[in-house]
Amino acid sequence: MTTTDAGGISFVVPCHNAGDYLVEAVESVVGQPLQRPYEVVIVDDGSDDDATLKAIDTCGELPGVRLVRLEQRQGHHAARNAGLAAARMEYVMQVDADDRLAIEPFLLREGSYPDRAVEILESDADTAFVHTMSWMFGAFEGFTISSYPCREDLVVRKHHVPTSIVCRRADALECGLYDPKVLKWGDWAFAVNLLASRYRRGAGNTIRCIAGPLYEYRVHSRVRRVSDAEVSELDMTLLVVEKNLDFFRDRLVRNDGAAEIALDVLGQKPTRLDDLLHMAKFDLHQAQIVAEQREFSLPSPYETLGIP
Question: Could you read off the pLDDT of 69-112 as tens digits, one per residue?
């Protein structure tokens, strides 16, 4: 069993042939003004690209970086699980190899996001996890449409959960880690597993948000992302509901079977407009910016009459 260092944080970076971006991702972590012990665990998920293998070796020479090598590709979630199993710190965070943490000084004036997240988790046993907003960069610049605080009641209604969550490693292990059978929407599935596991042992399920945006999501087409896969969302939702049927029944106040609840959960998934309204409740100015970036409109047949 891996011994964990109290108060420290492990950053798990799964990588399969993403060498073009890996060094930037790792440097964004080690470049944080971190005040706590930390490590970066890079999981090579069977990469067979020479540039990626070289990038992994380069990162492995940095202080605080450890390498875990899988002999053949096992998939993104299996790689994440291997990293969590190898982690030595009390708290954990996932950073995808083609993403990065924000390093702009004005965003870090109150300290690094990981430090602040761990401080919350240490001070409040009822907090299940902490997250931050995500900023897209690369082929598109701007907030993700789900940039508003998570809550347990929203998560059970299929609201987005970002990659950026910081949680206790013990909670991640207890909930069964990431489910490799959930081929897409794995961050949501992991969050449900974690919340359901804590629910079963009577722990609180508060979710805290540090706005930021302090996690940066790269929009590109050079490396295939899990989110690009063609997968039935209902099938994936059903897998999650079946695994946590007691949790969904209790939180949705229902006694239906898994199939009926999965349909209902998926039916409650927020539309882009719903997401925008949630964002507006949190930060109206931010919602206005997103609406302008995405060119949102609510056309009305009365517009030609000049009636708003």
Answer: 999 999 999 999 999 999 999 999 999 999 999 999 999 999 99
Helices (H), the chain: 19-30, 50-60, 76-86, 113-123, 152-155, 169-174, 186-200, 233-243, 245-252, 258-267, 272-282, 284-294
Q: How far apart are CA 204 and CA 178, in angstroms?
A: 21
DSSP 233-255: HHHHHHHHHHHTHHHHHHHHT--
Domain contains 253: yes
Determine, yes or no, domain membership for 57: yes
Q: What is the CATH number of the domain that holds 14?
A: 3.90.550.10
How far are the Cα atoms of 27, 184, 240 from residue 187, in angstroms, in the given order?
Answer: 23, 8, 11
Domain that residue 124 falls in: 5-294
Per-residue pLDDT tens for 268-289? 999 999 999 999 999 999 999 9
How many domains are contained in the chain? 1
Do the domain assignments include residue 308?
Answer: no
Long-range residue pairs from 58-65, CB within 8 A, at least 24 positions apart, any chain: 58/23, 59/22, 59/23, 59/26, 62/26, 62/30, 63/30, 64/30, 64/38, 64/39, 64/40, 65/26, 65/30, 65/39, 65/40
| 191: DSSP letter | H
User: Phi and psi of 293, rounded to 5°?
Assistant: -60, -40
| Domain assignment present for 304 | no
Q: Which amino acid is at 59?
A: C
The span from the CA of 110 to the CA of 161, in Å, is: 24
